[in-house]
Amino acid sequence: MIPMRLWTSIAALMIVLSVVLAPALAQKGNDGSASKPAADQMSRMMTMMAQMQEQMKQMHDDMASMKGMGRMMQEHHAQMQKGCPGMMSPDRPKSGG
User: Fold this and answer.
1) pLDDT tier for residue 5 given thresholds of 50, 70 and 90
2) Res. 84: pLDDT tops 70
3) How would you class 33 by CB atoms within 10 Å of its CB: exposed for 0-12, middle for 13-18, buried for 19 or more?
4) Residue 71: pLDDT above 70?
5) What residues contact residue 10 under an 8 Å CB cut-off, 6+ apart?
6) Residue 17 CB: number of other CB atoms within 10 A?
7) Centroid of chain to Cα 20
8) What pLDDT score does 97 carry?
9) What are phi and psi of 2, to 5 degrees?
10) For residue 76, what are the CA distances in angstroms to 18, 63, 82, 88?
11) What are the backbone dihedrals phi and psi of residue 94, each rounded to the nearest 5 degrees, phi first?
12) Helix residue spans in the chain (DSSP H)
């Protein structure tokens, strides 16, 4: 399942690209070749898009590793409770004054 934040980032990227690339495509000459500034702008946008895609992949990997850490911590906590039956759960309020 892909997180909502990732979908939002992808949608924002698509909007930015459409806003930036629309004028570049409109400047296309009659001979079918893009003008030099438009080609440079397209090149920069493609580079930026590749960087953003790599960043999103890294964020997704980081989130997956965090989920794994959470599971490990839960397992460790469960093992500690088995080993120490008198240990109180941090969720329960402490008795006394």
Assistant:
1) confident
2) yes
3) exposed
4) yes
5) 56
6) 15
7) 22
8) 53
9) -95, 130
10) 49, 20, 10, 15
11) -80, 140
12) 4-26, 36-83
Say if residues 2 and 9 touch (Cβ distance below 8 Å).
no
Could you tell me the pLDDT band of residue 61, with boundaries at 50, 70 and 90? confident
Q: Which residue has the higher pLDDT, 41 or 31?
A: 41
Q: Quote the CA–CA distance of 40 and 46 in Å, as a whole number.
A: 10
Residue type at position 38: A
Please check whether residue 97 is in contact with residue 91, taking contact to mean a CB–CB distance below 8 angstroms: no
DSSP letter for 27, please: T
pTM: 0.41
Task: Quote the tokens at residue 6.
Answer: 């990732």
Residue where the block lists tokens 């001979």: 31
AA letter at 61: D
Amino acid at 32: G
**What's the full length of the chain, in residues?**
97
In whole angstroms, what is the distance from residue 20 CA to residue 2 CA?
Answer: 27
